[in-house]
């Protein structure tokens, strides 16, 4: 009906197409210590203050740098079954063993600790230090010990400890030791020389006596895992317990890990790994974790989660990324709606992802739709932009559909992008922009009012790739050939040219923006835009800042941009995803090591959900990027591992002066970046000898026949292609004259 709105009704009485997908999970890598240790069970993982990952096994201690394992084995005939690892505030690394012995590392050798009172004869399952410098040991069989004044003191049932068999030890922010036992939790501390204990049992609200895992989240939240499969939250300030929706389906909890405000990971005795989503309030099983015993879980400083499994050994994944292998063809648009339902639009129509059975189910089967944009309005309706068939206004709960075309007031039937605020929506088309206004739910009683914005209205061109509404409710339009335009207070302003300046360069330059594919906004209110082949531009409202390969971009052709919950800019290009910190322009690259390969997404195959997670649909994979609340490390941790003179290691921590005949030096270093260790590059120089920095992929620098003088060896590492703000590690020394 020309000039009128056509109303179509479609009630979903049957489903005729479902596409099987893989479960939404992180991408896990598997590590093996080597053939010599193929029969070793890795049972605990520990991250020290330098960000190094250590493993404890029934065959010794292992240090892992992301590529190589280094083993530390006792030289006597006692057991090498490691039950605990800890680095103290003085930098010494400790290991507790199943036979009660305690060793520490000195000059890369294990040395037995022999206090006057001796060490326990029961397994040492944990270490900690309190705020006063006391050194604590937890055992399975002899309770709790602490070292003070050169003497060992024991805390057992006589002092009020709930049991001598301790499963776990966790220090809280106040320096108190929480220990899980067969009868509940004992919170222990020493004050004014007196041992103090506060117990938590069933009487206080624990659902189970046997506590095997404790994780402190913050001052008001401690997570507790029990033998009976319960995961409970305890508030130490209020002294109250709260329970998750239901207990873990597969019995005893062996370990816990917590991602702030997002989810709990639970390792189980015989069911693998379960995750409880705090956003969706439900448990899900991690298929890649198998169904065997999980020894340990650990969240590292990069946002990786480490899983130690009886069947599968050592696994790790970057928790920021989850993948769905979708099996759909040519996905062109994606949307996560307000009810946390995932929708995708393709050349074959509209599909919704069902998380329970990992399927994509087709909607609107009665229409042959080539979908290129998706949006959900204030009333919960889906606005579906198509190629050549205009806009479809769809209410999934009822199946009601309204089709809007040029005959109804749409500027053009090819709708490339949709965005809006309140009852106002803008459609980017091949013939300009359509502004839609409605005050009530149009599915029920309201009517649409249309306004066209074209070249005659002030737009630079009628070919519009992208529409984006910022925090000030201004509508920005990315055009084909004429840069960006902004609609504010009813007036259009065009920016066809970017007047910009590169860091470290004097003077301003002008560059035509031409085709703008994507637009987003950071938390400072700066507008970011991507171009066809000129990189990225930041606009602060006055001038532009240009980012290119020189500033670390991997590609000049950027497909899409989005902003996550932490205000970081997510950059999508054909080969991967990069994360940019707007304030300092630091970039982190992500690709195959988080499971992203051959992404090649369409321009509109990106969205941000209500939790600030960014979704990107590639040709075979849907990627969910979660902005973690944790303060994550953005640089590799550069460590100077070893200094050798004529191949003989020296104690470089305490030695920095050498004779004239000790002038052949080798420096060994590493940049720890467990997310993708192969990508790390190094820059080093010997001040007093080298004229400039030397770039290398090697982990060793060699200097021969150095003349007498004072030198400083400096090294840094990076995970990207820019050297902007990487921390420098240095070692100063002198070679004395004859």
Description:
The chain has 738 residues and is mainly beta. Among the domains are: 323-487 and 499-534 and 552-625, Methylamine Dehydrogenase, Chain H (7 Propeller), CATH 2.130.10; 637-735, Immunoglobulins (Immunoglobulin-like, Sandwich). Helices cover 0% and strands 49% of the residues. The chain contains no helices and 69 strands. The strands form 17 sheets. It has a five-stranded antiparallel sheet, with no helix packed on it. Strands 2-35-34-33-32 form a five-stranded antiparallel sheet, with no helix packed on it. β46 (484-488) and β47 form a beta hairpin. The N and C termini lie far apart (101 Å). The model is unreliable at 1-16 (pLDDT under 50).
Briefly summarize what is shown.
The protein is mainly beta. Helix content is 0%, strand content 49%. The protein contains no helices and 69 strands.
The CATH architecture term of the domain at 323-487 and 499-534 and 552-625 is: 7 Propeller
The total strand number stands at: 69
The total of helices stands at 0
User: What is the CA-CA span between the terminal residues?
Assistant: 101 Å
Derived from helix and strand composition plus strand pairing, the structural class reads mainly beta
Mean pLDDT: 93
Kindly provide the name of the CATH class of the domain at 323-487 and 499-534 and 552-625: Mainly Beta
Percent helix, as a range, is under 10%
Poorly predicted parts: 1-16
Using the alpha-carbon principal axes, give the shape: globular
Question: Could you describe the largest sheet, including whether it forms a barrel?
Answer: 5 strands, antiparallel
The proportion of strand residues reads over 45%
Rounded to an integer, what's the Rg over CA atoms? 30 Å
